[in-house]
Amino acid sequence: MMKARNFKETSVIIAPARVSEIIRKFVVEKSKYYYICNESYKLLGVVSQSDLLMSVLLNKIDEDVMVIMNPNFIFIERSSMEDTNQNIFFDKGLTEVPVLSTSGELLDVKSIFDYDCFK
Q1: Range of the domain at 35
Q2: Which of 33, 54, 73, 110 is the most exposed place for a label (fewest CB within 10 A)?
Q3: CA dist 64 to 3, 13, 45, Å?
């Protein structure tokens, strides 16, 4: 049985980083979203597959990832997870949502498939 990989191994990019680094990682990992964090795992922004495609089209692959990341991302705060409605995935059209501590540290990534009603 294959062991599940930790999201921090596959989807987290520690800033500073170049867009080209994420593209290389995407070729191997194929993650839908990449979470841009500082060394303390405070989430700074999110980069989607479409952001990566646009960076290639606009010739920004040698730019800092901060140029293409979305700093206005949707997230779930760990302290309010029990109250979070599963419909956030449908309401916002997302397949993943980062879970943050009250200080903004990336703790987990919830997938739409983590909920029984979507399996």
Answers
A1: 9-118
A2: 54
A3: 33, 12, 13
What is the reported pTM? 0.86
CB 49 within 8 A of CB 30: no
- Residue 97 phi, psi dihedral angles, 5° rounding: -140, 130
Average pLDDT over residues 99-110: 93
Residue whose C-alpha is closest to residue 105's, from 51, 47, 49, 35: 35
Residue 66 and residue 44 in contact, taking contact as beta carbons nearer than 8 Å: yes
CATH number at residue 51: 3.10.580.10
SS3 label, residue 34: strand
In a domain, 87, yes or no: yes
Q: Which of 8-22, 32-46, 58-72 has the lowest mean pLDDT?
A: 8-22
